[in-house]
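re: ur question from yesterday

yeah so i grabbed the chain u mentioned. its 243 aa long if i counted rite. heres the sequnce exactly as i have it in my notes:
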Amino acid sequence: MAIRLGMITPSLNTVLEPVTYRLLHGLPDVTAHFSRVSVTQISLDESSGGQFAPEPMIEAARLLIDAKVGSICWNGTSGGWLGVEKDAALCDAVQAAVGVPVTSATQAVTSLFREAGVTRFGLVTPYLNDVQQEIISKYSAAGFECVGEAHLGQHDGFAYAAVEDETWGELIRKVADTKPQAITTMCTNITGAPLAEPIERETGIPLVDSISASLWAAMKLAGGDPARILGWGKMFAGFKATA
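ran it thru and got these structure tokens back, copy pasting raw so excuse formatting
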């Protein structure tokens, strides 16, 4: 039976779709379909927060319903700095409007952490320092301690996509030295997902990328088995955190 997944993409994002297609290579019965909402800035400004209101998400989700998708994922990490509970409320509002299960990148990462027993994590992002600190604070309130972090301090969200793998690898290795139970590359406009296998072989620490986590959660909600996705890290096989 075909599984169709609905994905809501931040408008400035150029990484999410191609990486998702790569993740689904070899699974012809699982397809991803995309709708966009306007996201043009990543900051703590009030105007930035307004980009993530329920109304545009619901409109984008309704377009995906026309494709008869089995689940919908808001493929943005705004819940990281706006708050996990506020992000969950956004997902609930969209779900109530369209009638299919709805999740987000933030809900996916926190669900993975809870299922794996991760309480201490490492955080790698492209974000500004104040955004990074807000993510750490909000995740702490949700029960997750950030024991190591690294960020680029970049404001231009469109430019995140141009950051090279070598840069992300260096930041991930830096955070790995703090011995977290898992590391998350948090942003759906960066190429963290393809680094999972080599980084895990090198460090032994699971890498939970936002794009990968979003697909993992969307597949589960639609009745699929994410363990069918091979070669993209331990998270798809259901890892358990070590002490």
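noticed a couple things. The chain has ten helices and eight strands. also Strands lie at 3-10, 30-37, 71-74, 102-104, 120-125, 145-151, 182-185, 207-209.
anyway ttyl
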